[in-house]
Prior knowledge:
The structure holds 2 protein chains of 2 kinds. Chain A is α/β, with parallel strands linked by helices.
Amino acid sequence: MEPLIRIDRLTKLFGPIEAVRDVSFSVDRGEVVGLLGPNGAGKSTTLKLLAGYLAPTSGSASVCGHDVVASPLAARRSLGYLPEGAPLYDEMTPSGFLDFVARVRRLDGRARRDAVAAAARRLQLDGVLRQPIGTLSKGFRRRVGLAQAILLDPEVLVLDEPTDGLDPTQKHEVRALLREMAGRKAVIVSTHNLDEVEAVCTRAVVIAAGRVVADGAPAALATRSARHNVICIRVAREHAASAMDAIGTVPGLVAVDRPAATGDDTEIRVMAGGDADLRAPLHRALVDREVAVLEFWREPGRMEDVFRQLTRQVGEVV
Amino acid sequence: MRNLAVIARRELAAYFGAPLAYVFIVVFLAMSGALTFKVGYLLETGVAELGAFFRFHPWLYLFLMPAIGMRLWAEERKTGTLEFLMTLPVTPVETVIGKFLAAWIFAGVALVLTVPVWITVNWLGDPDNGVIVASYLASWLLAGGFLALSACASAMTGNQVIAFVVGATLCFLAMMSGVDIVRTAFEGWAPGWMIDTVVSLSALNNFETISQGVIDARTLVYFVSLIVLGLVANCAILEFRKP
Lengths: 318, 243
Ligand SMILES: Nc1ncnc2c1ncn2[C@@H]1O[C@H](COP(=O)(O)OP(=O)(O)OP(=O)(O)O)[C@@H](O)[C@H]1O
Ligand SMILES: [Mg+2]
């Protein structure tokens, strides 16, 4: 089956600037793809190409099987799009604005009123529906933009930094909204918030300098972290020596840091090779030597490290 | 077609939702009144007709129409809403015509507000109302032609001041191609048909033809062509200015 979003060797040059180079990926129904990358990586440009605002230099993109260049209207009908910065008509009220979008999207009478009311309720806009958009706070503007994008419950949602400027509660709400919609749609969100990717995205696509440098499940990407499979052990200071002895008896460790004392505690970090899970043998060895273990945990591997690693490499290549 | 109406409606609401609309209407009424009564001596001449009133419209429109048209695209480009608008499921043609119609209707509303002047001359004397109706039509058509040119200028840039200056220049060129200075410049070296063509392309001459009460097909075709040409160019500029 044709994926709902297909991006195929998309390239966009602005004069000498290569904003997007040979970007390919597709998104199926049920996926929420987080588009990551440093400032100027080409995230927004990719999304603008997908929404049909920019014309690609080469390559193609389609939404629900409709090519965005050859049949733009059909593609746009199935697409809810939040442009970067959520540009809105300042002189309109949210209610007038949503009504306008509903009309353009061919909703009539009762269906239109219901759709506007539902979207406004979903984004908690009820208190500001009659206030000119120009006088709204940044977070409310973003929410009006989001309401507009989800207004017709489109099959494909493309959101450029949807949670930028939202308060923690609203961020949580929007993430819940995305998760709730995820099952029925194909969603792309660009974001600088890596927690968000781990919280809502089923997949992360990292781009740097216009190219895709990684594409995979957030958890899988996190395992590329230098800290992946590091186990931290915290013991009382007087037990540090016997803890080190115990650790020495466990086979399969590739690195053991020197104990670091903090106050009355000592922290020891050890690293297992590959994906080997050495938690059980380590813990047993410590207990055998009667070391009082205060804390014991495995580092999950951090997206942030992976992100820096991936995007730095590209910087060096270019 | 349907989207066209939706776009035009939003755009009209935007006109009346901004102070510019009221400033424009006041300026238009005040200037056309002042020019008519002070410069045109409507009352002193004692002749019940509105020739003096309409005679100044081309000159007023020369800067008032670019003032109405300048925001149409430049504002959207500046605030970024153009991206939103152009990614809605509407064709650029619908958007271009919808925006133009809104501006043209707005100019029509301003024109309708001058009807009291018409009533006044009917009360003072016995004017040829047929000529006056034709003059209103001429004035509105001229406004449409100028607005189409101004919309083009607006589509070129994200700066409303530039849009205004370029728009006014385009309107000036369209208007002046038939006046005496231009005609003399062509006389003596250009063949007769060329002079005739240049003169027939003048918005001013065509305006005067209709406002004398002569509504002939040629002048109607002229104004309609001017508008269509402006709108086609508008679409082309939008497509070309796609980054
Ligand atoms: N209209 C344009 N003209 C010229 N260059 C452009 C244009 N739009 C974008 N660029 C360039 O393309 C590159 C990618 O920009 P883009 O906006 O896609 O980055 P981004 O990944 O969205 O960054 P951010 O995280 O800051 O939003 C940048 O180098 C930018 O300067
Ligand atoms: Mg961006």
